[in-house]
Amino acid sequence: MKRTWRSNEHKEQLWNCATATTIPPQHWARSHFTGRAISYMLLNNLCEVFNSKLVEGRDKPLITCLEYIREYMMKRICNVIKVQNKCVRPLTPSATKIMEKNVYLASQYTTRWNGSDKYQMKGPWQDQQVVDMAERVCSCRKSELTDLPCKHVIVFLNDKVDNGEKIGELHTYVHRVHWLETWKAAYVHKVEPIKGRAMWPISDCPIKITPPLHHNQHGRLKKKIRQSTGERSQKKGENGNGASGSQTDGASGSQTHAASGSGKLTRKFISVTCSKCKNKGHNLQGPSRKLKGFEASLMSFGFYMSTAYVYCMLCN
After folding, report:
1. From start to end residue, where is composition biased (Polar residues) (predicted)?
2. pTM for this entry
3. What is the DSSP string of 241-253?
């Protein structure tokens, strides 16, 4: 898409296209999430990470690929169990990290009580939110989406403690999804080891499935992910440093600016035409070669013979 629509005019139409979509915003806008998923994640990073682990097994035969996935799952479960055994807190490591950050940020806020169940939280950068403890919601909606007490809710809990009220442990205000017990229960089921292929039972099915005919593929098998034009240019800019990096960035920036200003592609994506055979994909110095000596004489002799034959057919 970046290769075809590279001008600024198309980039400015992005939000018009986003508002014109027929997909409801509950599926792609965090502000419209319902909180049913107990997560505010917008990306499919979980699927991408799992897919990247299967790169080495995807090009193998079916049984070999399944064996690779089974062994990877065994290794993955063991690694997670080792991390779980090191945890001493009631929450998962990711939830514990978020809660520690919220507790630190809550120390910068002040609270005002309205006399009922609502509190006004005011902090730095003109951040002011409302916490309704009757509905157990906050106007920032972070605690509603993740079921983790946000910094504004923690300010309310600190105010309760200062007034001598008992609120219990902080992890009791967290949804059970983020508890360490729930995380361990998800990895109770294990992948059983199996014997080698030589000890597998022979199938009683009368139909024997034969493998397809083998044919050698041209070139080396490609395993790398095909990157788009924008990803390749971005990676070149990140890898470049010093003078070479500045020159590369300058060159790419000038090409991008020229392409975006004129709305045309660079010569990098233009297909050349041969001036001799009039075919696209190569030039005069490409696949065709100059014939010398005996080969040239044979080609010229064949050309004259074919011309004479056509002339005789036309005369008759």
Report:
1. 244-259
2. 0.61
3. -HHHHHHHHHHHH
